[in-house]
Amino acid sequence: MAAATPASFDAASVERGARLAAVGDCSSCHTASNGRPYAGGVPLATPFGTIHGTNITPDPETGIGGWSEGAFVRAMREGIARDGSHLYPAFPYDHFTHTTDDDLHALYAYLMTRDPVRAPNRANDLRFPFNIRPLIAAWNVLYLRQTAFHPEPSRSAEWNRGAYLVQSLGHCGSCHSPRNALGAEKTDAELAGGEAQGWYAPALNDASPSPLPWTVEQLSVYLRTGIARDHAIAGGPMQEVAGNLAHASADDVHAIAVYIESTMGPLTGDREARANGAQRRAAGGPLPNVSVEDQRIGTSGGTASGNAALAQLGITVYDDACAACHDLGRTDSSSGALRLPLAVAVYDPDPRSLLRIVRDGIAPLPGQPGRWMPAFGSTLSDEQLVALLAYLRAAAAEAPPWRELPKSVREANASP
Amino acid sequence: MITINVNGSARQVDADPATPLLYVLRGELQLNGAKFGCGLGQCGACTVMVGGAAAFSCLIPISLVQQRPVKTVEGLGTIDKPGVVQQAFIDEQAAQCGYCIAGMIMRAQALLERKPDPSDAEIRREMTPNLCRCGTHMRILRAVRRASDMMRGKSVDHPVASR
Protein backbone atom coordinates (compact mmCIF):
# COMPACT_ATOMS: atom_id res chain seq x y z
CA MET A 1 0.00 0.00 0.00
CA ALA A 2 1.42 3.34 -1.04
CA ALA A 3 1.24 6.50 1.00
CA ALA A 4 -1.25 9.13 -0.08
CA THR A 5 -0.23 12.41 -1.67
CA PRO A 6 -1.24 15.67 0.04
CA ALA A 7 -3.48 16.68 -2.86
CA SER A 8 -5.62 13.58 -2.39
CA PHE A 9 -7.11 14.82 0.89
CA ASP A 10 -10.18 17.03 1.01
CA ALA A 11 -9.88 20.23 3.01
CA ALA A 12 -12.70 19.28 5.36
CA SER A 13 -10.89 16.13 6.51
CA VAL A 14 -7.66 18.05 7.05
CA GLU A 15 -9.50 20.67 9.09
CA ARG A 16 -11.26 18.03 11.19
CA GLY A 17 -7.96 16.23 11.66
CA ALA A 18 -6.36 19.42 12.97
CA ARG A 19 -9.09 19.77 15.59
CA LEU A 20 -8.73 16.13 16.59
CA ALA A 21 -4.94 16.40 16.82
CA ALA A 22 -5.57 19.18 19.34
CA VAL A 23 -7.78 16.85 21.39
CA GLY A 24 -5.06 14.21 21.18
CA ASP A 25 -2.41 16.66 22.45
CA CYS A 26 -0.10 15.10 19.84
CA SER A 27 2.32 18.03 19.89
CA SER A 28 3.20 17.59 23.58
CA CYS A 29 5.26 14.53 22.70
CA HIS A 30 5.88 15.05 18.99
CA THR A 31 6.92 18.74 18.87
CA ALA A 32 10.10 19.68 20.75
CA SER A 33 10.42 23.10 22.36
CA ASN A 34 11.85 25.38 19.68
CA GLY A 35 11.42 22.46 17.27
CA ARG A 36 9.49 22.17 14.02
CA PRO A 37 5.89 20.98 14.39
CA TYR A 38 5.55 17.19 14.78
CA ALA A 39 9.25 16.57 14.00
CA GLY A 40 9.68 14.65 17.28
CA GLY A 41 12.61 14.62 19.68
CA VAL A 42 10.74 15.40 22.90
CA PRO A 43 12.26 13.43 25.79
CA LEU A 44 9.64 11.77 27.96
CA ALA A 45 10.84 10.51 31.34
CA THR A 46 9.14 7.28 32.40
CA PRO A 47 9.80 4.88 35.30
CA PHE A 48 11.48 2.63 32.72
CA GLY A 49 13.86 5.19 31.25
CA THR A 50 13.64 8.03 28.76
CA ILE A 51 11.76 7.65 25.52
CA HIS A 52 11.67 10.19 22.68
CA GLY A 53 8.64 11.33 20.70
CA THR A 54 9.08 10.43 17.04
CA ASN A 55 8.94 12.41 13.82
CA ILE A 56 5.35 12.17 12.52
CA THR A 57 5.72 14.66 9.68
CA PRO A 58 5.32 13.24 6.15
CA ASP A 59 9.06 13.16 5.50
CA PRO A 60 9.49 9.87 3.58
CA GLU A 61 12.73 8.80 5.25
CA THR A 62 12.68 10.08 8.83
CA GLY A 63 8.94 10.64 9.30
CA ILE A 64 5.77 8.81 8.25
CA GLY A 65 5.73 10.04 4.65
CA GLY A 66 5.94 6.48 3.37
CA TRP A 67 3.12 5.18 5.55
CA SER A 68 -0.16 4.11 3.96
CA GLU A 69 -3.37 4.90 5.80
CA GLY A 70 -3.55 1.22 6.73
CA ALA A 71 -0.12 1.37 8.35
CA PHE A 72 -1.11 4.53 10.24
CA VAL A 73 -4.33 2.92 11.49
CA ARG A 74 -2.44 -0.18 12.61
CA ALA A 75 0.03 1.95 14.58
CA MET A 76 -2.81 3.85 16.26
CA ARG A 77 -4.87 0.75 17.06
CA GLU A 78 -2.25 -1.95 17.66
CA GLY A 79 0.96 -0.07 18.45
CA ILE A 80 2.85 -1.59 15.53
CA ALA A 81 5.02 0.57 13.28
CA ARG A 82 5.08 0.32 9.50
CA ASP A 83 8.18 -1.91 9.62
CA GLY A 84 6.41 -4.32 11.97
CA SER A 85 8.28 -3.30 15.14
CA HIS A 86 6.39 -2.67 18.35
CA LEU A 87 5.86 0.89 19.55
CA TYR A 88 6.23 1.60 23.27
CA PRO A 89 2.95 2.12 25.11
CA ALA A 90 4.16 5.56 26.18
CA PHE A 91 2.46 6.20 22.85
CA PRO A 92 -1.09 5.70 24.12
CA TYR A 93 -2.39 3.27 21.52
CA ASP A 94 -4.25 1.56 24.37
CA HIS A 95 -6.53 4.61 24.12
CA PHE A 96 -6.24 5.37 20.41
CA THR A 97 -7.40 1.83 19.65
CA HIS A 98 -10.95 3.00 20.45
CA THR A 99 -10.84 5.78 17.82
CA THR A 100 -13.29 5.52 14.90
CA ASP A 101 -12.23 4.94 11.29
CA ASP A 102 -13.52 8.38 10.33
CA ASP A 103 -11.51 10.15 12.99
CA LEU A 104 -8.35 8.22 12.15
CA HIS A 105 -8.82 9.09 8.48
CA ALA A 106 -9.09 12.79 9.37
CA LEU A 107 -5.95 12.61 11.55
CA TYR A 108 -4.07 10.88 8.77
CA ALA A 109 -5.19 13.55 6.32
CA TYR A 110 -4.01 16.26 8.70
CA LEU A 111 -0.59 14.74 9.42
CA MET A 112 0.15 13.85 5.80
CA THR A 113 -0.48 17.47 4.75
CA ARG A 114 1.96 18.99 7.28
CA ASP A 115 5.37 20.28 6.20
CA PRO A 116 7.74 17.34 5.92
CA VAL A 117 10.75 17.76 8.20
CA ARG A 118 13.89 15.71 7.86
CA ALA A 119 14.74 14.81 11.46
CA PRO A 120 16.00 11.33 12.40
CA ASN A 121 14.39 9.87 15.50
CA ARG A 122 16.42 9.97 18.69
CA ALA A 123 17.37 6.69 20.33
CA ASN A 124 15.53 5.81 23.54
CA ASP A 125 17.34 5.28 26.79
CA LEU A 126 15.42 2.49 28.51
CA ARG A 127 16.79 0.08 31.05
CA PHE A 128 16.80 -3.68 30.68
CA PRO A 129 14.48 -5.48 30.05
CA PHE A 130 12.32 -2.62 28.84
CA ASN A 131 14.73 -1.92 25.97
CA ILE A 132 13.65 -5.20 24.31
CA ARG A 133 10.84 -4.21 21.99
CA PRO A 134 9.45 -7.70 21.21
CA LEU A 135 8.45 -8.00 24.89
CA ILE A 136 5.77 -5.42 24.19
CA ALA A 137 3.83 -8.16 22.42
CA ALA A 138 3.31 -9.79 25.81
CA TRP A 139 2.28 -6.44 27.29
CA ASN A 140 -0.29 -6.11 24.53
CA VAL A 141 -1.75 -9.54 25.25
CA LEU A 142 -2.13 -8.56 28.90
CA TYR A 143 -3.35 -4.99 28.57
CA LEU A 144 -4.38 -3.96 25.05
CA ARG A 145 -8.13 -4.24 24.53
CA GLN A 146 -8.90 -3.52 20.89
CA THR A 147 -12.55 -2.70 21.21
CA ALA A 148 -14.70 -0.04 19.66
CA PHE A 149 -16.18 2.59 21.98
CA HIS A 150 -19.50 1.40 23.39
CA PRO A 151 -22.01 4.22 23.77
CA GLU A 152 -24.20 4.37 26.86
CA PRO A 153 -27.75 4.55 25.46
CA SER A 154 -29.20 6.05 28.64
CA ARG A 155 -26.90 9.07 28.37
CA SER A 156 -27.10 12.09 26.07
CA ALA A 157 -25.32 12.26 22.73
CA GLU A 158 -23.03 14.95 24.14
CA TRP A 159 -22.08 12.82 27.16
CA ASN A 160 -21.28 9.93 24.85
CA ARG A 161 -19.18 12.14 22.60
CA GLY A 162 -17.26 13.29 25.66
CA ALA A 163 -16.81 9.74 26.92
CA TYR A 164 -15.55 8.66 23.52
CA LEU A 165 -13.02 11.49 23.30
CA VAL A 166 -11.77 11.02 26.88
CA GLN A 167 -11.30 7.27 26.44
CA SER A 168 -9.84 7.39 22.92
CA LEU A 169 -7.95 10.33 21.41
CA GLY A 170 -8.00 12.50 24.53
CA HIS A 171 -6.25 9.68 26.45
CA CYS A 172 -6.92 11.50 29.74
CA GLY A 173 -6.30 8.30 31.68
CA SER A 174 -2.69 8.21 30.51
CA CYS A 175 -1.95 10.75 33.22
CA HIS A 176 -5.07 10.77 35.39
CA SER A 177 -5.28 7.01 36.01
CA PRO A 178 -2.85 5.11 38.24
CA ARG A 179 -0.57 2.58 36.56
CA ASN A 180 0.66 -0.83 37.64
CA ALA A 181 4.27 -2.02 37.86
CA LEU A 182 4.38 -2.65 34.11
CA GLY A 183 3.07 0.79 33.29
CA ALA A 184 -0.45 -0.30 32.35
CA GLU A 185 -3.39 1.74 33.57
CA LYS A 186 -5.28 0.01 36.37
CA THR A 187 -8.64 -0.76 34.82
CA ASP A 188 -10.36 -0.90 38.19
CA ALA A 189 -9.20 2.62 39.08
CA GLU A 190 -10.03 4.60 35.96
CA LEU A 191 -9.29 8.34 36.38
CA ALA A 192 -8.50 7.76 40.07
CA GLY A 193 -5.45 10.05 39.92
CA GLY A 194 -2.03 9.42 38.44
CA GLU A 195 1.14 11.22 37.60
CA ALA A 196 2.70 13.12 34.75
CA GLN A 197 6.36 14.12 34.65
CA GLY A 198 6.66 14.68 38.36
CA TRP A 199 3.22 16.26 38.77
CA TYR A 200 0.28 14.69 40.52
CA ALA A 201 -2.50 14.37 37.92
CA PRO A 202 -5.63 14.79 40.05
CA ALA A 203 -8.30 12.16 40.35
CA LEU A 204 -11.24 12.87 38.05
CA ASN A 205 -13.54 10.36 39.72
CA ASP A 206 -15.28 10.72 43.08
CA ALA A 207 -11.85 11.05 44.71
CA SER A 208 -11.36 14.46 43.03
CA PRO A 209 -9.36 16.62 45.44
CA SER A 210 -11.13 19.81 44.31
CA PRO A 211 -12.67 21.53 47.36
CA LEU A 212 -15.46 23.06 45.27
CA PRO A 213 -17.23 20.66 42.94
CA TRP A 214 -16.40 21.50 39.33
CA THR A 215 -19.27 22.60 37.12
CA VAL A 216 -19.47 21.75 33.42
CA GLU A 217 -18.94 25.39 32.50
CA GLN A 218 -15.87 25.78 34.74
CA LEU A 219 -14.35 22.61 33.31
CA SER A 220 -15.06 23.71 29.78
CA VAL A 221 -13.36 27.07 30.32
CA TYR A 222 -10.44 25.47 32.17
CA LEU A 223 -9.85 22.92 29.44
CA ARG A 224 -9.64 25.62 26.78
CA THR A 225 -7.78 28.34 28.72
CA GLY A 226 -6.00 26.62 31.61
CA ILE A 227 -7.71 29.07 33.95
CA ALA A 228 -10.45 28.28 36.45
CA ARG A 229 -10.61 31.06 38.99
CA ASP A 230 -12.19 28.92 41.72
CA HIS A 231 -9.97 25.87 41.18
CA ALA A 232 -6.65 26.08 39.41
CA ILE A 233 -4.34 27.69 36.88
CA ALA A 234 -2.95 24.90 34.73
CA GLY A 235 0.78 24.24 35.02
CA GLY A 236 3.12 21.55 33.77
CA PRO A 237 1.80 19.01 31.27
CA MET A 238 -1.82 20.16 31.71
CA GLN A 239 -0.87 23.62 30.48
CA GLU A 240 0.07 22.14 27.13
CA VAL A 241 -3.11 20.09 27.06
CA ALA A 242 -5.17 23.25 27.53
CA GLY A 243 -3.04 25.11 25.00
CA ASN A 244 -3.94 22.43 22.48
CA LEU A 245 -7.60 22.16 23.45
CA ALA A 246 -7.93 25.86 22.66
CA HIS A 247 -7.64 24.74 19.03
CA ALA A 248 -10.08 21.84 19.33
CA SER A 249 -13.73 22.11 18.43
CA ALA A 250 -15.53 24.02 21.20
CA ASP A 251 -18.36 21.48 21.06
CA ASP A 252 -15.92 18.62 21.62
CA VAL A 253 -14.32 20.34 24.61
CA HIS A 254 -17.75 21.01 26.08
CA ALA A 255 -18.61 17.34 25.59
CA ILE A 256 -15.43 16.35 27.45
CA ALA A 257 -16.45 18.69 30.27
CA VAL A 258 -19.93 17.13 30.43
CA TYR A 259 -18.43 13.66 30.71
CA ILE A 260 -15.73 14.55 33.25
CA GLU A 261 -18.23 16.39 35.44
CA SER A 262 -20.24 13.18 35.57
CA THR A 263 -17.24 10.95 36.38
CA MET A 264 -16.63 13.05 39.49
CA GLY A 265 -19.92 11.76 40.86
CA PRO A 266 -22.72 13.37 42.84
CA LEU A 267 -22.28 15.92 45.60
CA THR A 268 -22.18 13.88 48.80
CA GLY A 269 -22.57 15.27 52.30
CA ASP A 270 -18.83 15.05 52.93
CA ARG A 271 -17.97 16.96 49.80
CA GLU A 272 -20.57 19.59 50.54
CA ALA A 273 -19.08 20.13 53.99
CA ARG A 274 -15.60 20.42 52.49
CA ALA A 275 -16.87 22.91 49.91
CA ASN A 276 -18.54 25.01 52.57
CA GLY A 277 -15.34 25.07 54.61
CA ALA A 278 -13.28 26.16 51.63
CA GLN A 279 -15.78 28.89 50.73
CA ARG A 280 -15.73 30.16 54.31
CA ARG A 281 -11.93 30.29 54.42
CA ALA A 282 -11.72 31.91 50.99
CA ALA A 283 -14.19 34.60 51.97
CA GLY A 284 -12.63 35.27 55.36
CA GLY A 285 -9.91 37.72 54.37
CA PRO A 286 -6.22 36.96 54.98
CA LEU A 287 -5.21 33.40 55.82
CA PRO A 288 -4.97 32.95 59.59
CA ASN A 289 -1.77 32.47 61.58
CA VAL A 290 -2.07 28.77 62.35
CA SER A 291 -0.36 27.47 65.49
CA VAL A 292 2.23 24.74 65.52
CA GLU A 293 -0.38 22.38 66.97
CA ASP A 294 -2.79 23.07 64.13
CA GLN A 295 -0.03 22.67 61.54
CA ARG A 296 0.69 19.31 63.25
CA ILE A 297 4.36 19.71 62.42
CA GLY A 298 5.30 17.70 65.53
CA THR A 299 3.72 14.54 64.13
CA SER A 300 6.90 13.77 62.20
CA GLY A 301 9.26 14.25 65.14
CA GLY A 302 11.57 17.19 65.87
CA THR A 303 12.01 19.25 69.01
CA ALA A 304 9.25 21.47 70.36
CA SER A 305 11.22 24.66 69.80
CA GLY A 306 12.31 23.54 66.32
CA ASN A 307 8.74 22.76 65.37
CA ALA A 308 7.50 26.08 66.71
CA ALA A 309 10.17 27.88 64.69
CA LEU A 310 9.14 25.99 61.56
CA ALA A 311 5.49 26.87 62.10
CA GLN A 312 6.39 30.54 62.50
CA LEU A 313 8.62 30.38 59.42
CA GLY A 314 5.69 29.12 57.32
CA ILE A 315 3.58 32.06 58.44
CA THR A 316 6.44 34.48 57.66
CA VAL A 317 7.05 33.05 54.20
CA TYR A 318 3.36 33.28 53.34
CA ASP A 319 2.99 36.79 54.75
CA ASP A 320 6.07 38.24 53.09
CA ALA A 321 6.32 36.34 49.80
CA CYS A 322 2.80 35.16 48.90
CA ALA A 323 0.12 37.26 50.57
CA ALA A 324 0.62 40.39 48.46
CA CYS A 325 -1.00 38.59 45.53
CA HIS A 326 -2.90 35.70 47.14
CA ASP A 327 -4.68 37.45 50.02
CA LEU A 328 -7.63 39.11 48.40
CA GLY A 329 -7.53 42.84 48.85
CA ARG A 330 -4.29 43.03 50.79
CA THR A 331 -2.59 45.13 48.13
CA ASP A 332 -3.58 46.57 44.78
CA SER A 333 -2.54 43.40 42.93
CA SER A 334 -4.71 42.32 40.03
CA SER A 335 -6.66 39.85 42.20
CA GLY A 336 -5.90 37.36 39.43
CA ALA A 337 -4.11 35.07 41.85
CA LEU A 338 -6.04 32.05 43.12
CA ARG A 339 -7.51 32.25 46.59
CA LEU A 340 -5.55 29.39 48.08
CA PRO A 341 -8.41 27.86 50.13
CA LEU A 342 -9.98 27.09 46.75
CA ALA A 343 -6.80 25.92 45.00
CA VAL A 344 -7.00 22.23 44.13
CA ALA A 345 -3.24 21.65 44.49
CA VAL A 346 -3.36 22.41 48.23
CA TYR A 347 -5.84 19.54 48.65
CA ASP A 348 -3.90 16.98 46.56
CA PRO A 349 -2.98 13.72 48.31
CA ASP A 350 0.71 14.59 47.90
CA PRO A 351 2.62 17.88 47.53
CA ARG A 352 4.30 17.27 44.16
CA SER A 353 2.24 19.68 42.09
CA LEU A 354 2.24 22.47 44.66
CA LEU A 355 6.01 22.14 45.06
CA ARG A 356 6.48 22.52 41.33
CA ILE A 357 4.16 25.51 41.12
CA VAL A 358 5.98 27.32 43.93
CA ARG A 359 9.41 26.37 42.62
CA ASP A 360 8.91 26.98 38.89
CA GLY A 361 6.00 29.44 38.94
CA ILE A 362 3.52 29.55 36.11
CA ALA A 363 4.39 31.23 32.84
CA PRO A 364 2.14 31.40 29.80
CA LEU A 365 3.05 29.15 26.90
CA PRO A 366 5.47 30.91 24.52
CA GLY A 367 3.66 33.61 22.58
CA GLN A 368 0.36 33.01 24.37
CA PRO A 369 -1.55 35.17 26.83
CA GLY A 370 -2.03 33.72 30.29
CA ARG A 371 -1.50 34.11 34.00
CA TRP A 372 1.93 34.65 35.49
CA MET A 373 3.31 33.53 38.80
CA PRO A 374 7.01 34.04 39.48
CA ALA A 375 9.28 31.07 40.14
CA PHE A 376 10.30 31.02 43.81
CA GLY A 377 12.80 28.17 43.46
CA SER A 378 15.86 30.34 43.99
CA THR A 379 14.06 32.69 46.37
CA LEU A 380 13.11 30.19 49.06
CA SER A 381 15.46 27.82 50.84
CA ASP A 382 14.42 24.17 51.15
CA GLU A 383 13.52 24.75 54.78
CA GLN A 384 11.35 27.76 53.86
CA LEU A 385 9.63 25.68 51.18
CA VAL A 386 8.85 22.90 53.66
CA ALA A 387 7.54 25.43 56.19
CA LEU A 388 5.37 27.18 53.59
CA LEU A 389 3.75 23.97 52.38
CA ALA A 390 3.07 22.76 55.92
CA TYR A 391 1.45 26.10 56.68
CA LEU A 392 -0.67 26.18 53.51
CA ARG A 393 -1.85 22.62 54.08
CA ALA A 394 -3.13 23.62 57.52
CA ALA A 395 -4.29 27.19 56.95
CA ALA A 396 -5.65 27.07 53.40
CA ALA A 397 -6.87 23.47 53.19
CA GLU A 398 -7.35 22.57 56.88
CA ALA A 399 -6.25 19.13 55.72
CA PRO A 400 -4.06 16.51 57.44
CA PRO A 401 -0.34 17.27 56.98
CA TRP A 402 1.57 15.85 54.06
CA ARG A 403 3.99 13.18 55.30
CA GLU A 404 7.71 13.56 54.74
CA LEU A 405 7.66 17.03 53.21
CA PRO A 406 11.47 17.43 53.37
CA LYS A 407 11.79 14.20 51.36
CA SER A 408 9.33 15.49 48.75
CA VAL A 409 11.38 18.68 48.44
CA ARG A 410 14.58 16.67 47.96
CA GLU A 411 12.90 14.56 45.29
CA ALA A 412 11.60 17.65 43.49
CA ASN A 413 15.09 19.18 43.62
CA ALA A 414 16.52 16.07 42.00
CA SER A 415 14.21 16.25 38.98
CA PRO A 416 13.97 19.05 36.42
CA MET B 1 16.24 45.61 62.64
CA ILE B 2 17.08 42.79 60.28
CA THR B 3 20.66 41.66 59.71
CA ILE B 4 21.77 40.40 56.32
CA ASN B 5 25.19 39.46 55.03
CA VAL B 6 26.04 41.36 51.86
CA ASN B 7 29.33 40.95 50.01
CA GLY B 8 30.97 39.56 53.12
CA SER B 9 29.85 42.07 55.71
CA ALA B 10 26.90 42.02 58.10
CA ARG B 11 24.50 44.91 57.43
CA GLN B 12 21.74 46.15 59.69
CA VAL B 13 18.61 47.09 57.83
CA ASP B 14 15.63 48.99 59.17
CA ALA B 15 12.85 47.99 56.81
CA ASP B 16 9.48 46.24 56.73
CA PRO B 17 10.15 42.46 56.66
CA ALA B 18 8.25 42.11 53.38
CA THR B 19 10.47 44.67 51.60
CA PRO B 20 12.13 43.10 48.56
CA LEU B 21 15.88 42.65 48.90
CA LEU B 22 16.36 44.76 45.76
CA TYR B 23 14.86 47.85 47.40
CA VAL B 24 17.10 47.40 50.43
CA LEU B 25 20.23 46.98 48.30
CA ARG B 26 19.50 50.08 46.26
CA GLY B 27 17.61 52.28 48.70
CA GLU B 28 19.38 51.54 51.99
CA LEU B 29 22.79 50.13 51.16
CA GLN B 30 23.63 52.26 48.08
CA LEU B 31 24.42 49.11 46.09
CA ASN B 32 22.92 50.21 42.79
CA GLY B 33 24.32 47.49 40.53
CA ALA B 34 21.18 45.34 40.61
CA LYS B 35 18.44 47.06 38.59
CA PHE B 36 14.69 47.27 38.91
CA GLY B 37 13.25 45.93 35.65
CA CYS B 38 9.83 44.42 36.09
CA GLY B 39 9.44 43.67 39.80
CA LEU B 40 7.85 40.33 38.92
CA GLY B 41 10.77 37.98 38.34
CA GLN B 42 10.25 38.15 34.60
CA CYS B 43 13.34 39.99 33.34
CA GLY B 44 16.36 39.20 35.51
CA ALA B 45 17.77 42.75 35.74
CA CYS B 46 17.69 42.44 39.56
CA THR B 47 19.58 39.12 39.69
CA VAL B 48 22.00 38.74 42.61
CA MET B 49 23.40 35.66 44.33
CA VAL B 50 21.68 34.45 47.48
CA GLY B 51 23.16 31.45 49.23
CA GLY B 52 25.33 30.76 46.20
CA ALA B 53 22.49 30.65 43.67
CA ALA B 54 21.27 33.29 41.23
CA ALA B 55 18.03 34.79 42.49
CA PHE B 56 15.62 37.59 41.56
CA SER B 57 16.21 40.15 44.32
CA CYS B 58 12.89 41.82 43.49
CA LEU B 59 11.06 38.71 44.73
CA ILE B 60 12.94 37.94 47.95
CA PRO B 61 11.46 39.59 51.01
CA ILE B 62 14.23 40.82 53.28
CA SER B 63 12.84 38.59 56.07
CA LEU B 64 13.58 35.44 54.10
CA VAL B 65 17.24 36.09 53.29
CA GLN B 66 18.08 34.83 56.79
CA GLN B 67 21.61 33.37 57.01
CA ARG B 68 22.12 33.06 53.27
CA PRO B 69 24.99 35.30 52.09
CA VAL B 70 24.08 37.87 49.43
CA LYS B 71 26.56 38.69 46.69
CA THR B 72 26.03 41.58 44.27
CA VAL B 73 28.02 42.76 41.27
CA GLU B 74 29.82 45.21 43.58
CA GLY B 75 31.18 42.19 45.43
CA LEU B 76 32.99 40.81 42.39
CA GLY B 77 35.58 43.55 41.85
CA THR B 78 36.28 47.24 41.42
CA ILE B 79 36.69 49.53 38.43
CA ASP B 80 40.45 49.17 38.76
CA LYS B 81 40.38 45.47 39.51
CA PRO B 82 37.33 43.90 37.87
CA GLY B 83 36.44 40.31 38.68
CA VAL B 84 36.99 37.64 36.05
CA VAL B 85 33.39 37.62 34.81
CA GLN B 86 33.32 41.43 34.77
CA GLN B 87 36.57 41.49 32.79
CA ALA B 88 35.22 38.97 30.31
CA PHE B 89 32.10 41.12 29.75
CA ILE B 90 34.36 44.17 29.17
CA ASP B 91 36.63 42.23 26.83
CA GLU B 92 33.70 41.03 24.74
CA GLN B 93 32.03 44.49 24.92
CA ALA B 94 28.88 42.62 25.94
CA ALA B 95 26.96 45.67 27.14
CA GLN B 96 25.01 48.00 24.91
CA CYS B 97 22.71 50.05 27.14
CA GLY B 98 23.95 48.00 30.09
CA TYR B 99 20.74 47.81 32.10
CA CYS B 100 20.63 44.00 32.11
CA ILE B 101 24.34 43.45 32.54
CA ALA B 102 24.70 43.37 36.32
CA GLY B 103 22.03 40.68 36.39
CA MET B 104 23.65 38.80 33.52
CA ILE B 105 27.03 38.88 35.26
CA MET B 106 25.60 37.60 38.52
CA ARG B 107 23.74 34.73 36.85
CA ALA B 108 26.93 33.83 34.96
CA GLN B 109 28.96 34.08 38.17
CA ALA B 110 26.58 31.69 39.95
CA LEU B 111 26.77 29.26 37.05
CA LEU B 112 30.57 29.29 36.90
CA GLU B 113 30.99 28.93 40.66
CA ARG B 114 28.79 25.85 40.50
CA LYS B 115 30.10 24.52 37.20
CA PRO B 116 33.37 26.05 35.95
CA ASP B 117 33.20 24.41 32.51
CA PRO B 118 29.63 24.51 31.24
CA SER B 119 28.78 23.51 27.67
CA ASP B 120 27.45 26.20 25.33
CA ALA B 121 24.01 24.60 25.63
CA GLU B 122 24.21 24.77 29.42
CA ILE B 123 25.20 28.44 29.27
CA ARG B 124 22.21 29.20 27.05
CA ARG B 125 19.84 27.28 29.28
CA GLU B 126 21.17 28.87 32.45
CA MET B 127 20.99 32.42 31.08
CA THR B 128 17.43 32.00 29.76
CA PRO B 129 15.65 33.83 32.62
CA ASN B 130 17.62 37.04 31.95
CA LEU B 131 16.42 39.28 29.13
CA CYS B 132 18.35 41.85 27.09
CA ARG B 133 16.32 44.32 25.05
CA CYS B 134 19.28 45.59 23.05
CA GLY B 135 19.93 42.13 21.62
CA THR B 136 23.55 41.66 22.65
CA HIS B 137 22.86 38.03 23.54
CA MET B 138 25.56 36.63 21.31
CA ARG B 139 28.20 38.79 22.96
CA ILE B 140 26.87 37.95 26.40
CA LEU B 141 27.11 34.24 25.64
CA ARG B 142 30.65 34.75 24.35
CA ALA B 143 31.53 36.65 27.51
CA VAL B 144 30.33 33.80 29.72
CA ARG B 145 32.35 31.34 27.64
CA ARG B 146 35.36 33.63 27.90
CA ALA B 147 34.99 33.94 31.67
CA SER B 148 34.89 30.17 31.94
CA ASP B 149 38.05 29.87 29.85
CA MET B 150 39.83 32.62 31.84
CA MET B 151 38.96 31.00 35.16
CA ARG B 152 40.40 27.70 33.99
CA GLY B 153 43.58 29.28 32.66
CA LYS B 154 42.82 28.60 29.01
CA SER B 155 44.13 31.05 26.45
CA VAL B 156 41.54 33.50 25.16
CA ASP B 157 41.29 35.76 22.08
CA HIS B 158 42.34 39.38 22.27
CA PRO B 159 39.61 41.61 23.69
CA VAL B 160 37.07 42.74 21.08
CA ALA B 161 38.13 46.36 21.51
CA SER B 162 41.64 45.65 20.23
CA ARG B 163 40.71 43.16 17.50
Write a concise synopsis of the structure shown:
The complex is a heterodimer of chains A (416) and B (163). With 416 residues, chain A is mostly helical. In chain A, 43% of the residues lie in helices and 5% in strands.
Give a verbal description of the structure.
The complex is a heterodimer of chains A (416) and B (163). In chain A, α1 crosses α5 (101-112), α9 (216-225) crosses α10 and α17 (382-395) crosses α18. Chain A contains 18 helices and seven strands. Chain A has three domains: 6-143; 157-263, Cytochrome Bc1 Complex, Chain D, domain 2, CATH 1.10.760; 281-414, Cytochrome Bc1 Complex, Chain D, domain 2, CATH 1.10.760. Chain A is mainly α and 416 residues long. Chain B has 163 residues and is of the alpha+beta class. Chain B has two domains: 2-74, Roll (Ubiquitin-like (UB roll)), CATH 3.10.20; 84-157, DNA polymerase, domain 1 (Orthogonal Bundle). Helices cover 33% and strands 12% of the residues of chain B. Chain B is built from five helices and five strands, in the order ββαβββαααα. In chain B, strands 4-3-5 form a three-stranded antiparallel β-sheet, covered by helices on one side. The model of chain B has no long low-confidence stretch (mean pLDDT 95).
